[in-house]
Design a protein that fits this description.
- The chain is of the alpha+beta class and 244 residues long.
- 21% of the residues lie in helices and 23% in strands.
- The chain has three helices and seven strands; from the N terminus they run ααββββββαβ.
- It has a five-stranded antiparallel sheet. It has a two-stranded antiparallel ribbon with strand order 1-2.
- The longest helix is centred in the first third of the chain and has 31 residues.
Length: 244
């Protein structure tokens, strides 16, 4: 018996089969094989873009107008139409005042500082148009005849000096400033120089320190008071909210 070994060279097909069975393929995907994945990614990006555009359009459609202020307002400021501006917002508005309700707050007073372009809520204002009275202040009413106040009158929010002047039988008594700076909180009537006018008295309510209340009230009853209008920037002796 004789033994012999084959010396035939393996065919290219058998070599390829051997490598495939042993170590696995390291061939990179062809460009043709990558095309479906790129197409799927493009579709996903398009869908995300469309969803984002739809969300922006939806939010834009839900924007509403709210009340803001166009300048800094100090505590105790009486709100006027000229103080307000309109701004639009979307999403959570946190109880801000809708522009449609702006008229409702005219004549109310600010409860703290409000800054330019700030959107406001009901908590930024008093609940009614009555001027608040601080613990160290009092509101006192004055009735003034012609010559006892500026000829152009006084308005709510004006700063005035309350002065006691001598009456006709007190010629030796000097004028005395009772309140250096008080704020006018209410006004009614008017003083007119026209003799045919029915307006002869001006009724003014001013905020004074409590320790001056009795003196001012007594002088008001004796009709010996005169009001002098001061600069709007004057700091008052007492403030409705603890600041000027």
């Amino acid at each position: 018996m004789s033994l012999s070994s084959s010396t035939r060279t393996p065919s290219p097909g058998s070599r390829g089969a051997g490598r495939s069975a042993g170590g696995g393929s390291t061939r990179l995907p062809s460009s043709r094989e990558r095309r479906p994945a790129l197409a799927a990614l493009a579709v996903i990006l398009i869908l995300l873009g469309a969803a984002g555009s739809a969300l922006i359009a939806l939010n834009s459609g839900n924007r509403s107008d709210f009340v803001a202020v166009n300048s800094d307002l100090e505590p105790g400021h009486r709100l006027e139409r000229k103080d307000l501006s309109r701004g639009d917002l979307a999403g959570a508005t946190g109880g801000m005042i809708p522009w449609s309700q702006a008229e409702k707050y005219l004549g109310h007073y600010t409860t703290g500082w409000i800054y330019k372009d700030q959107f406001v809520t009901p908590k930024n204002f008093t609940t009614d148009t009555n001027p608040p009275v601080p613990t160290n202040g009092a509101l006192v009413g004055l009735t003034l005849d012609a010559g006892r106040a500026p000829s152009d009158g006084v308005d709510v929010g004006d700063k005035v000096s309350v002065i006691r002047v001598p009456t006709s039988n007190q010629e030796t008594v000097s004028a005395q400033t009772l309140v250096a700076a008080a704020e006018v909180t209410a006004v009614s009537g008017a003083i007119s120089g026209d003799k045919t006018s029915t307006n002869s008295t001006l009724n003014v309510t001013v905020l004074v320190p409590t320790d001056k209340l009795a003196t001012v009230a007594a002088a008001a009853a004796a009709k010996s008071l005169v009001l002098g209008k001061l600069s709007p920037s004057t700091k008052t002796d007492v403030s409705r909210f603890g600041g000027n």
